[in-house]
Amino acid sequence: MGVYTVGDHQIPFHNYKEAVDWINGLIPFGIRPGLERIELLMERLGNPHRRLKFIHVAGTNGKGSSCAFLTQTLMECGYSVGTYTSPYITKFTNRFQYNDQDIPEDTLLSIAGRLFPLVQEMAESEQGSPTMFEVSTALAILYFAEECYPDVVVWETGLGGRMDVTNIVTPIVSLITNIGHDHMDVLGDTIEQIASEKAGIIKPGIPVVSCVEQPEAISILKETAIEKNSTLYLLGEQFSFERTQVSEDGQGVRFRGPFRELEFNIAMLGEHQSKNASGVMMVLEVLRQYMAFVLDDEHVLAGFRATFWAGRLEKVTDEPRIVLDGAHNPEGAETIAKTIPEVYHYRKLNLMMGMLANKHHSAYLQHILPIVDTLILTEPDFRRKLDAEALLALVEQLREAYAKTDLEIIVERDWKKALMLLQSRTEREDLGVVAGSLYMISDVRATLLHQTDSEKGW
Q1: pLDDT tens per residue, the chain (458 residues)?
Q2: How buried is residue 249: exposed, middle or buried, by Cβ count under 10 Å (0-12/13-18/19+)?
Q3: Partners of 323 in the beta sheet?
Q4: How many helices (H) and strands (E) does the chain have?
Q5: Can the keyword Transcription be found in this entry's annotation (predicted)?
């Protein structure tokens, strides 16, 4: 590794790849909930986050899609938008976008160079080294506050809310998409515990929008909003939606809010996307009504129509028809199982699946098995992958109760060979689906779309 100097400091990387390798090299420090290290980092940099307007987005599923709706619609309305999301589908730079464009590699390199000495200094102190996600978050803040100056930043939580690194910011409005079973090893194993973590993004006096539906989660959000003196806009109470039409090309949504009714179309599939879009519409209504955002209906509707989010019920090839979906928890599986038969017509459904070792797979399989004709079990190319044989053992336990009687199961550890099997077995009248870990979805997507610059990661 080469060395070059920034100011008085020697930096041990001199190209984009080495900078990303350094950031990813911090992964072994793990996920360490708490804001002390990021607060210290920001203080040393002059608190650049205080100069930005954030829309903070938390939730178990639907965060990425909601961020995409917000970004596209605000851009369509003439605002410049920074977007910070994770994990990424194609390249590390996807995490940090300005007006839908990735951070330039040389900008990432120079900001990483600024952060390196601070991170080293902290690593040698009692705080210990910042984690990979903390350094990425600091990098995002510096990019938006000192390089591109967006009007607004769409800011996705990494994990939970309360102790998540992104919670260092005070937003202009918060959005909590939904609450389900994910990251239970960190967030707790009941809906109440997970809801308490997500509700941690609610700030004093800052309005919050939510599409959460479980009564026990709703009561926690309501209590927190009262305690923080924040106005809560809740799906089913302050706003609602209904779907007006559904096809392979998208769906129509009728939104009813406290200020007005509006009909719009989205290209994204599934009732869950109508719900995500309605939550975002409520956020936009709050911005329009109370924060003087100029959001003309024509541009708002065009933004919703144009929104796309890779790897979410995304049809990537027509011959054979193959759809990708990065659903990896029970709620995501329930959504796939409901949406695919509603939207697509097919004779046989062939599903290729690969998972990480830390998820709730039994409940996932209970939702997905009833719709599958051929199941191809494989493994993501990732260090925390779940062994395909272990996944098979789980399927066999559930087979009798949930699967079709003639379900065919194939185990192929190598995901590339598994993909070739899926392609060869999916005939013209059939549908091929690749589901599970986003790490695998990103590899499969790059292969099917012939993308040569694909990286992948959290």
Answers
A1: 344 455 555 778 889 999 999 999 997 776 677 899 999 999 999 999 999 999 999 998 889 899 999 999 999 999 999 999 987 777 899 999 999 999 999 999 999 999 999 999 999 999 899 999 999 999 999 999 999 999 999 999 987 678 889 999 999 999 999 887 654 444 446 888 888 888 989 999 999 999 999 899 999 999 999 999 999 999 999 999 999 999 888 999 999 999 999 999 999 999 999 999 999 999 999 999 999 999 999 999 999 999 988 888 899 999 999 999 988 788 889 989 999 999 999 999 999 999 988 756 899 999 999 999 999 999 999 888 999 999 999 999 999 999 999 999 999 999 999 999 999 999 999 999 999 988 899 899 999 998 766 665 54
A2: exposed
A3: 315, 433
A4: 15, 19
A5: no
Which helix or strand (DSSP H or E) is residue 218 part of? helix 215-227
Maximum separation of any 2 CA atoms in the chain, in Å: 69
Model-level pTM greater than 0.70? Answer: yes
Where along the chain do its domains lie? 5-306, 314-449
User: Is residue 325 within 8 Å of 105, Cβ to Cβ?
Assistant: no
- Beta strands 208-210 and 173-176, pairing class: parallel
Distances (CA, A) of 375 to 356, 411, 432: 17, 8, 10
The CATH classification number of 314-449 equals 3.90.190.20
Alpha-carbon gap, residue 16 to 20, rounded angstroms: 6
Q: Is residue 106 classed as helix, strand or coil in its secondary structure?
A: helix
For 5-306, CATH number out of 1.20.1260.100, 3.40.1190.10, 2.30.110.10, 3.40.630.30 equals 3.40.1190.10
Ramachandran quadrant class, 164 (left: phi over 0; alpha: psi -120 to 50; beta: rest) = beta
Asked whether the beta carbons of 360 and 436 are under 8 A apart, the reply is no
Q: Is 378 helix (H, G, I), strand (E, B) or coil?
A: strand
